[in-house]
Amino acid sequence: MANSIDYFGRNHWLSDIQQRVSLLARRRMFEKCPWGQTKKKRLRILDIGSTPDQERGDSNCFIRWCMERGDEVSAASVEDISVLKESYPELNVLDKLHPAPSKWIMKDVEYDWCIASAVLEHVGSYNNQVHFLSECARISQRLFITTPNRYHWLEFHTKLPFIHWLPRKIHRWILECLGMPFWAQEDNLNLLSIHELESIATKSLGSDFVFSVTSVWTLGMPSNLLLIAHRRSQSWSV
To answer: Rounded CA gap, 41 and 115, in Å?
Structure first.
Protein backbone atom coordinates (compact mmCIF):
# COMPACT_ATOMS: atom_id res chain seq x y z
CA MET A 1 0.00 0.00 0.00
CA ALA A 2 1.24 3.49 -0.83
CA ASN A 3 2.08 5.77 2.06
CA SER A 4 -1.05 7.73 2.93
CA ILE A 5 -2.33 9.98 5.68
CA ASP A 6 -4.01 7.91 8.39
CA TYR A 7 -7.20 9.96 8.68
CA PHE A 8 -9.11 7.45 10.79
CA GLY A 9 -6.60 5.81 13.13
CA ARG A 10 -6.23 2.32 11.69
CA ASN A 11 -4.70 1.01 14.93
CA HIS A 12 -7.42 2.36 17.22
CA TRP A 13 -9.55 -0.31 18.92
CA LEU A 14 -12.72 1.31 17.53
CA SER A 15 -11.44 1.40 13.95
CA ASP A 16 -13.20 -1.75 12.71
CA ILE A 17 -16.54 -0.68 14.17
CA GLN A 18 -16.14 2.82 12.75
CA GLN A 19 -15.33 1.43 9.32
CA ARG A 20 -18.59 -0.51 9.20
CA VAL A 21 -20.62 2.43 10.49
CA SER A 22 -18.92 4.78 8.02
CA LEU A 23 -19.60 2.52 5.05
CA LEU A 24 -23.32 2.35 5.87
CA ALA A 25 -23.50 6.14 6.30
CA ARG A 26 -21.72 6.74 2.99
CA ARG A 27 -24.08 4.39 1.19
CA ARG A 28 -27.05 6.35 2.56
CA MET A 29 -25.44 9.57 1.34
CA PHE A 30 -24.78 8.08 -2.10
CA GLU A 31 -28.41 7.06 -2.42
CA LYS A 32 -29.59 10.59 -1.55
CA CYS A 33 -27.91 12.05 -4.64
CA PRO A 34 -29.94 12.47 -7.87
CA TRP A 35 -27.12 11.23 -10.12
CA GLY A 36 -29.35 11.32 -13.14
CA GLN A 37 -33.04 11.04 -12.49
CA THR A 38 -33.46 10.26 -16.17
CA LYS A 39 -30.09 8.88 -17.15
CA LYS A 40 -29.38 9.42 -20.84
CA LYS A 41 -25.63 8.96 -20.99
CA ARG A 42 -22.59 7.71 -19.17
CA LEU A 43 -21.78 10.35 -16.56
CA ARG A 44 -18.36 11.98 -16.38
CA ILE A 45 -17.52 11.99 -12.66
CA LEU A 46 -14.47 13.34 -10.86
CA ASP A 47 -13.64 12.20 -7.33
CA ILE A 48 -11.51 14.86 -5.60
CA GLY A 49 -9.44 13.90 -2.58
CA SER A 50 -9.29 10.17 -3.29
CA THR A 51 -7.10 8.17 -0.93
CA PRO A 52 -4.43 5.60 -1.84
CA ASP A 53 -5.75 3.42 0.99
CA GLN A 54 -7.04 0.07 -0.27
CA GLU A 55 -7.54 -1.65 3.09
CA ARG A 56 -10.64 0.03 4.53
CA GLY A 57 -14.00 -0.86 3.04
CA ASP A 58 -15.15 2.77 3.18
CA SER A 59 -12.14 4.11 1.26
CA ASN A 60 -13.01 5.35 -2.23
CA CYS A 61 -16.43 3.72 -2.01
CA PHE A 62 -18.01 6.44 -4.18
CA ILE A 63 -15.54 5.61 -6.94
CA ARG A 64 -16.52 1.97 -6.68
CA TRP A 65 -20.26 2.63 -6.69
CA CYS A 66 -20.11 5.07 -9.63
CA MET A 67 -18.07 2.60 -11.65
CA GLU A 68 -20.61 -0.11 -10.85
CA ARG A 69 -23.23 2.21 -12.35
CA GLY A 70 -21.17 2.32 -15.55
CA ASP A 71 -20.00 5.92 -15.22
CA GLU A 72 -16.71 7.30 -16.51
CA VAL A 73 -14.78 8.06 -13.33
CA SER A 74 -11.62 10.12 -12.80
CA ALA A 75 -9.78 10.68 -9.53
CA ALA A 76 -7.41 13.35 -8.24
CA SER A 77 -5.72 14.05 -4.91
CA VAL A 78 -2.87 15.88 -3.21
CA GLU A 79 -1.64 12.36 -2.37
CA ASP A 80 -0.13 9.87 -4.82
CA ILE A 81 -3.10 7.68 -5.78
CA SER A 82 -1.53 5.90 -8.75
CA VAL A 83 -1.86 2.63 -6.80
CA LEU A 84 -5.64 2.75 -7.34
CA LYS A 85 -5.13 1.56 -10.92
CA GLU A 86 -4.43 -1.86 -9.42
CA SER A 87 -7.97 -2.08 -8.02
CA TYR A 88 -9.71 0.01 -10.69
CA PRO A 89 -7.99 -0.48 -14.08
CA GLU A 90 -10.59 1.69 -15.84
CA LEU A 91 -10.15 4.60 -13.40
CA ASN A 92 -8.58 7.71 -14.91
CA VAL A 93 -6.02 8.86 -12.32
CA LEU A 94 -5.07 12.51 -12.84
CA ASP A 95 -1.79 14.19 -11.98
CA LYS A 96 -1.19 14.98 -8.32
CA LEU A 97 -2.86 18.23 -7.24
CA HIS A 98 -1.25 21.09 -5.37
CA PRO A 99 -2.93 21.97 -2.05
CA ALA A 100 -5.29 24.94 -1.80
CA PRO A 101 -5.27 27.71 -2.80
CA SER A 102 -3.73 26.54 -6.09
CA LYS A 103 -5.85 26.37 -9.24
CA TRP A 104 -6.49 22.82 -10.38
CA ILE A 105 -5.41 21.38 -13.73
CA MET A 106 -8.94 20.51 -14.85
CA LYS A 107 -10.77 22.55 -17.49
CA ASP A 108 -13.87 24.60 -16.81
CA VAL A 109 -17.07 22.52 -16.66
CA GLU A 110 -15.19 19.35 -17.66
CA TYR A 111 -17.34 16.96 -15.60
CA ASP A 112 -21.00 16.20 -15.02
CA TRP A 113 -20.39 15.68 -11.31
CA CYS A 114 -17.60 16.52 -8.89
CA ILE A 115 -17.51 14.37 -5.74
CA ALA A 116 -15.55 15.28 -2.60
CA SER A 117 -16.25 12.86 0.23
CA ALA A 118 -14.87 13.80 3.67
CA VAL A 119 -12.30 16.15 2.13
CA LEU A 120 -13.51 19.68 2.86
CA GLU A 121 -12.63 19.41 6.57
CA HIS A 122 -9.00 18.63 5.64
CA VAL A 123 -8.14 21.53 3.30
CA GLY A 124 -7.42 24.08 6.03
CA SER A 125 -8.77 27.54 6.75
CA TYR A 126 -12.17 29.00 5.90
CA ASN A 127 -10.62 30.74 2.88
CA ASN A 128 -9.08 27.47 1.71
CA GLN A 129 -12.45 25.76 2.06
CA VAL A 130 -14.08 28.48 -0.01
CA HIS A 131 -11.38 28.09 -2.66
CA PHE A 132 -11.73 24.31 -2.67
CA LEU A 133 -15.48 24.46 -3.21
CA SER A 134 -15.07 27.19 -5.85
CA GLU A 135 -12.71 24.93 -7.81
CA CYS A 136 -15.14 22.01 -7.53
CA ALA A 137 -17.82 24.30 -8.98
CA ARG A 138 -15.56 25.66 -11.73
CA ILE A 139 -14.86 22.25 -13.23
CA SER A 140 -18.30 20.61 -13.04
CA GLN A 141 -22.01 20.94 -13.70
CA ARG A 142 -23.07 19.44 -10.37
CA LEU A 143 -21.55 18.92 -6.92
CA PHE A 144 -21.76 16.14 -4.34
CA ILE A 145 -19.81 17.22 -1.24
CA THR A 146 -19.83 15.44 2.12
CA THR A 147 -18.21 16.42 5.40
CA PRO A 148 -18.62 15.35 9.05
CA ASN A 149 -21.00 17.37 11.18
CA ARG A 150 -19.04 19.28 13.80
CA TYR A 151 -21.94 18.91 16.21
CA HIS A 152 -22.18 15.15 16.20
CA TRP A 153 -21.33 13.92 19.70
CA LEU A 154 -18.37 11.81 18.47
CA GLU A 155 -15.44 13.19 16.49
CA PHE A 156 -14.59 10.32 14.15
CA HIS A 157 -10.94 11.17 13.46
CA THR A 158 -9.80 11.36 17.08
CA LYS A 159 -12.53 9.03 18.46
CA LEU A 160 -13.11 11.58 21.24
CA PRO A 161 -16.59 12.77 22.30
CA PHE A 162 -17.87 16.32 22.81
CA ILE A 163 -14.60 18.29 23.14
CA HIS A 164 -14.86 19.39 19.46
CA TRP A 165 -17.96 21.37 20.49
CA LEU A 166 -15.69 23.74 22.42
CA PRO A 167 -14.28 26.86 20.75
CA ARG A 168 -11.73 25.77 18.16
CA LYS A 169 -8.72 27.19 19.98
CA ILE A 170 -9.61 25.31 23.16
CA HIS A 171 -10.35 22.10 21.25
CA ARG A 172 -6.97 22.26 19.52
CA TRP A 173 -5.16 23.02 22.77
CA ILE A 174 -6.73 19.92 24.35
CA LEU A 175 -5.67 17.79 21.38
CA GLU A 176 -2.12 19.05 21.78
CA CYS A 177 -2.21 18.13 25.47
CA LEU A 178 -3.54 14.66 24.59
CA GLY A 179 -0.64 14.02 22.20
CA MET A 180 -2.60 14.57 18.99
CA PRO A 181 -0.68 17.46 17.37
CA PHE A 182 -1.65 16.43 13.83
CA TRP A 183 -5.37 16.89 14.50
CA ALA A 184 -4.69 20.07 16.47
CA GLN A 185 -3.62 21.83 13.26
CA GLU A 186 -6.24 23.72 11.26
CA ASP A 187 -4.58 22.57 8.03
CA ASN A 188 -5.43 18.97 8.94
CA LEU A 189 -8.83 19.25 10.60
CA ASN A 190 -11.34 22.09 10.40
CA LEU A 191 -14.78 20.71 11.18
CA LEU A 192 -17.94 22.47 9.96
CA SER A 193 -21.46 22.97 11.24
CA ILE A 194 -24.39 23.02 8.85
CA HIS A 195 -24.52 26.83 9.01
CA GLU A 196 -20.79 27.12 8.28
CA LEU A 197 -21.14 24.79 5.30
CA GLU A 198 -24.05 26.85 3.99
CA SER A 199 -21.97 30.01 4.40
CA ILE A 200 -19.04 28.52 2.47
CA ALA A 201 -21.39 27.29 -0.27
CA THR A 202 -23.07 30.68 -0.60
CA LYS A 203 -19.72 32.43 -0.97
CA SER A 204 -18.22 29.80 -3.28
CA LEU A 205 -21.13 29.14 -5.60
CA GLY A 206 -22.72 32.57 -5.76
CA SER A 207 -25.71 32.93 -8.05
CA ASP A 208 -24.48 30.36 -10.59
CA PHE A 209 -25.63 27.33 -8.58
CA VAL A 210 -28.68 26.06 -6.76
CA PHE A 211 -27.72 24.06 -3.67
CA SER A 212 -29.14 22.28 -0.66
CA VAL A 213 -27.54 20.96 2.52
CA THR A 214 -28.98 17.85 4.15
CA SER A 215 -27.68 15.37 6.72
CA VAL A 216 -27.37 11.66 7.41
CA TRP A 217 -27.90 10.36 10.94
CA THR A 218 -25.56 7.93 12.70
CA LEU A 219 -25.46 6.95 16.38
CA GLY A 220 -28.45 9.07 17.27
CA MET A 221 -27.50 12.42 15.68
CA PRO A 222 -26.78 13.99 12.28
CA SER A 223 -23.26 12.70 11.62
CA ASN A 224 -22.55 13.84 8.07
CA LEU A 225 -23.50 16.91 6.07
CA LEU A 226 -24.26 16.57 2.39
CA LEU A 227 -24.08 19.49 -0.05
CA ILE A 228 -25.73 18.84 -3.41
CA ALA A 229 -25.66 21.57 -6.07
CA HIS A 230 -26.22 22.14 -9.77
CA ARG A 231 -25.76 25.02 -12.16
CA ARG A 232 -28.88 27.08 -12.71
CA SER A 233 -28.58 26.36 -16.43
CA GLN A 234 -28.72 22.58 -15.75
CA SER A 235 -31.01 20.16 -13.97
CA TRP A 236 -30.55 16.94 -12.02
CA SER A 237 -31.35 14.79 -15.05
CA VAL A 238 -28.62 14.08 -17.59
So the answer is: 18
Question: Could you give the C-alpha distances from 20 to 3, 30, 51, 98, 218, in angstroms and in order?
Answer: 23, 15, 18, 31, 11
Nearest of 100, 132, 106 to residue 46 by alpha carbon: 106
Which domains does the chain carry? Answer: 15-162+189-231 (3.40.50.150)
- Side-by-side strand order, sheet with 92-93: 92-93, 72-76, 44-48, 111-117, 140-148, 221-231, 209-218
- The span from the CA of 189 to the CA of 120, in Å, is 9
Between CA 126 and CA 190 the distance in angstroms is: 8
Contact yes or no for 130/204 (Cβ under 8 A) = yes
The whole-model pTM stands at 0.91
Cα torsion 30, 46, 228, 158: sign:
positive
Residues of the chain with pLDDT under 70: 1-14, 37-39, 238
Q: Determine phi and psi for 83, rounding to 5 degrees.
A: -65, -20
Nearby residues of 199 by Cβ (< 8 Å), 6 or more positions away: none
Q: What residue spans of 156-193 are helical by DSSP H?
A: 168-177
d(CA 94, CA 54): 18
Residues 139-178 have pLDDT tens digits of 999 999 999 999 999 999 999 999 999 999 999 999 999 9
